[in-house]
Design a protein that fits this description.
alpha/beta, Nucleotidyltransferase, domain 5
Length: 186
């Protein structure tokens, strides 16, 4: 089983907003060919938002994504099929740090009249799994990296860098998850 570790960045504002207003502005993903595997491929694309095409100062500062990055990008209805093509036809499980990413995919698919892929229903919430594995409250990716004595690599809140960091955690977590699944579903 291969794993797609994904992290999204989306439009955001300092005072918060209704989640339906948020739009994906970056898809970052890495492919792990197996639970113990070293990443073999990665996907990174900026996405031009359509509801709120001008990034807030807060969003630019948080993500380090510049207005010109998304101005030159394609919209979700163009980028998402490219992402699916990158994933390919082999069976996979999507993994993310929390449920936010999968729900944002669902929101943006609906916004652009794209069918939400049935294959995305195979999703592992690594934030929840990490909390259960370590018997702690759910925590952020940066805290989890610290707990595992792994330095944060790249820029936090950049989709591709966070996906790479999450993949480093995933290679520690996925083998016991697979083992548990084998016991539950022999």
């Amino acid at each position: 089983m291969q794993y797609i570790i994904v992290d999204l960045e989306a439009t955001c504002w300092e005072k918060g907003t209704h989640p339906a207003r948020m739009e994906i502005i970056e898809i970052g993903a890495v492919l792990l060919p197996s639970a113990q595997g070293v990443q073999t491929s990665e996907f990174c694309a900026f996405v031009k938002p359509v509801v709120a095409p001008i990034l807030s100062d807060f969003c630019k500062q948080l993500t380090s994504i510049r207005q010109q990055d998304i101005d030159q990008a394609d919209t979700f209805d163009v980028v998402f099929p490219t992402f699916l093509e990158w994933i390919g036809t082999e069976e996979f499980t999507i993994c993310s740090w929390g449920n936010y990413d999968i729900e944002q995919f669902r929101t943006d698919c609906k916004r652009h009249n794209i069918a939400f892929p049935e294959s995305f229903e195979r999703h592992i919430n690594l934030k929840q799994e990490f909390a259960m594995w370590k018997n702690i409250k759910r925590c952020g990716m940066k805290t989890a990296l610290n707990m595992m004595s792994l330095p944060l690599e790249g820029t936090h809140h950049r989709g591709i860098d966070d996906a790479r960091n999450i993949a480093r955690l995933a290679t520690m977590m996925l083998p016991p998850i697979e083992e548990q699944n084998k016991k539950l579903n022999p």
